[in-house]
User: Fold these one by one.
Assistant:
Number 1:
Amino acid sequence: MNTHPSETNSTNASPPDPSRTEAIIAPGDQARLKEWYRSSHSAYLRTILRLFGWPSANRAGAYLAQNAWLLTRHGDATPALQLCVLKLIERQASTPAERTNLAYLTDHVLLARGEPQMYGTQVTVDDLRGLASPRTLRDPENVDARRRAVGLGPLADYLRGFEPGHR
């Protein structure tokens, strides 16, 4: 039985089992627990990719595709894996939801690399004024056309959703 992320068998495609953390993480140690989940989920996702390729919705179903995307999106400790998945989704996006996920992951990866985002999905909110704005944005004049191409609504509408009274 695997008890630590470093012992993860690369051919085992089972999702991480939180009950196995007791032997390696003391109760209340949230930082280690969070790191265990990140490492375990990244190892699980790598195994899925190695064995089956990207589980696009047309190949594996919408549920698996969405969950694989969520593991990727929240895998900030593995930017190389995020970039790899981004390239796979670019080639295989088969549904409107996958095109939307592509936009969110694209922006996330670009910002993590210190580059401006394309779709304006990553925002900051000025809590004093109650206004939301996109983080650094490439070619803002054409952002709504790019958003429309991946199934997202206008940026102004998206930003309003972060403001008080709309959350």
Number 2:
Amino acid sequence: MIKILICEDDLKDRKILIEYLQSYFKKNKIDIEINILNNYESSDYYEEYDFIFLDIQLENTNGIDFARRFREKNRDSIIV
């Protein structure tokens, strides 16, 4: 199973991304788990993920700072 974290505060963009990912992985018969991170100051993001889709301009922080903090705990995740 592929674990995906989406960090996107725009609901419309988040919905489009989720629909695309679900469609793509379903077509390719790959199981996925998608999680949404709403509180960027939370420790929830310390969980291991295969892919992180990260918005650069976030409400509580910017995506670059968030990626740096995330990378300290999750070295193998791919950040998009």
